[in-house]
Amino acid sequence: MFESPAKRAIDPVFHGNPKTKEELWHEHFLREMNPNYLRSSLISLLHNITLTYLKDCTPIILYDKKVKTEEIQLFQNFLKNFPTSFTHGYIDDNNKLKEPNLLTIRQHCLHYIVFLSDVKRIANVLGKQSESKEAPYILYTHELYTDGLGASKPVVLNSWSDNKFSRQVNLFPSKVIKGYAGHRFTVAASDIPPFIFKRIKIDPKDGNIKVTWDGIEMRLLNLLAKRNNFSIEIVEPRDLSLGPGAAVVKEVMMDRADIAAAGLYVTSERLFNLDLSFPHSHDCAVFITLMSTALPRYRAILGPFHWHVWLALTITYLLAIFPLAFSDKHTLRHLINNSGWYWLFTIIITSCYTGCIIAFVTLPIFPDTVDTIKQLLAGFYRVGTLDRGGWETWFLNSSDPNTNKLFKKIEYVPDVRSGIRNVTRAFFWPSKRAKLHISSECFAPFQVALGFPRNSVYHDKLSGDVSRLLQSGIINKIVDEVRWEIQRSSTGRLSVGKVSQKVNSVQEKGLTLEDTQGMFLLLGAGFLIASGALLSEWMGGCSRKCTMKRTKPSSLSSENLVPNAYYEIRENGFNTSESTDSLNGQIINVSEESITVHNEFNVFEFSSKSSSADVDREVQEIFEMNHTKHALEQRLFEIESVKTNSPVGEYVNK
């Protein structure tokens, strides 16, 4: 059977010495980059180097055996189009020139172009050189602010020659050591107390209005100016609609100012646009709410119990009494038998209330203050912030879920005064104004710094001075001085709250009229409720009588009634004026001896002898009499109906 030959046997690639995969790729993909192209690029590079660096002297071209045999075509093309005159020589296998006189033709101006297979052999070919042909590198620096105009002059710092410096000096010396020669820096400032603020004063000499600037950053700049021998000029930003911080940043970015001072917070956006100094202060974003004043004293009577307890007591006494009263066959027997439970419950509640009422009456009650974001979210608060200056965008990408939830319902105000005016707006009492509470939790910490233009030459020096001032405690002293100037009272003292370090001794305090007004208000409320209940009872009784009179038949008289002595007694109630058994005006004489006074009657003994059975019997008699009364009324109504509908005539009682 004929077998087909294997593919490897008939493929000519596998005969002899087959090429590797890398060689095949190189052959197919790099076919266009032929050696002639590479050689022409190398020749052009060598010609360019010759024209740039070797044209002042005649170059000497030296080559060895490898170049002469293997790269002869490259070497011929290189010499054929060489741009200047040259001299060439051959290097034998012993690293010797075939024509040694080539090295002594011109000793003072020699340029070599050497082609060697081993670069280390060049020392044997040319020999040791007595002088370095390398030109030294001169290093310069500048002395900045040599005059008040901000000019500078170059200064030779060092030189580099023979792989070493000519002298050992600091290559990066500190600049502006002697100051700025009285140069005037323009400072863009906005009114941001306490960092920098504007004051308008009247000159006592001529009466002219004078504008002065003060604050932490202003005093810091004055201190830096004295230290570094420069002066400052304060200018206000032109575009005030951006907000104080963004406006001064724009002034510096537009090269209209040299320094920005407006209590700038260090943010990523400002770090990208400006060079900020070392932070000189720390600030904190907080919430301002109305101060939690003490609750009125008339509400102190509600203090011992929480509103849950008051609700439970109200339901117990006012609502739960109805199902309890009529749950046992519409009788009051079970309430009378179990009266001790209600009495015990009332005693416990009363004892708990009276045991705590004194503390709530004599001591003021302060509600909880708003100090955290969770409290803001839990309450029904309207939260606002500034609509400019970065506050509207700084917290949009926050990773805190509470912050994101809070800024979904945020409101914006044009300035700080408008925000405080919204907080202190009084609807009833003007005394509610200016009572503010600052939250204890820091919503967002910020660092405060001065702003400089990007890559400014004076940034590093002034920033380093600010760092040293902070570390030495001078900035803390400046802060205390500014606080003293702003918060100083008319008596010459710092108008801040005093915190006593001593525990005040407990003193007895009597109840005032203000402390007891809640009790009288509660008593008056009870009288008002009772009066309303009594009035409703009267109105209900009157309306019921009027209804009964309208529905009572006109022909109804005592002759139509079925005679019943018991009913007459209960209905008439032994009225002497209508009694048929009267004495017709006769006078009854009663002597003192016929009157017996029982002085030994004991009410408590009599009440203790009564049993529950007697009470049940009396209650039963009351219900039976009521039932008899309703039965008689129903009987009279039936008789009246029969009399009216009878065809014979009126009913006659015999």
From TrEMBL:
Could you confirm whether the keyword Acyltransferase appears in this record? no
- GO MF terms, alphabetically ordered: ligand-gated monoatomic ion channel activity
- Species the sequence originates in: Papilio xuthus (Asian swallowtail butterfly)
User: Which stretches make up the Ionotropic glutamate receptor C-terminal domain?
Assistant: 340-527
Tell me which family the UniProt entry assigns to this protein: Belongs to the glutamate-gated ion channel (TC 1.A.10.1) family.
Q: What is this protein called?
A: Ionotropic glutamate receptor C-terminal domain-containing protein
Q: Known InterPro entries for this protein? A: Insect_Ionotropic_Sensory_Rcpt, Iontro_rcpt_C
Q: What is the membrane topology noted in the UniProt record heading this document?
A: Multi-pass membrane protein
Keywords associated with the record: Cell membrane, Glycoprotein, Membrane, Receptor, Transmembrane, Transmembrane helix
Mind telling me which PANTHER family this protein's record contains?
A: IONOTROPIC RECEPTOR 20A-RELATED, IONOTROPIC RECEPTOR 60A
Q: Where in the cell is it found?
A: Cell membrane
UniProt-listed Pfam families: Lig_chan
Keyword presence, Transmembrane helix: yes
Q: Which GO terms describe its biological process?
A: detection of stimulus involved in sensory perception
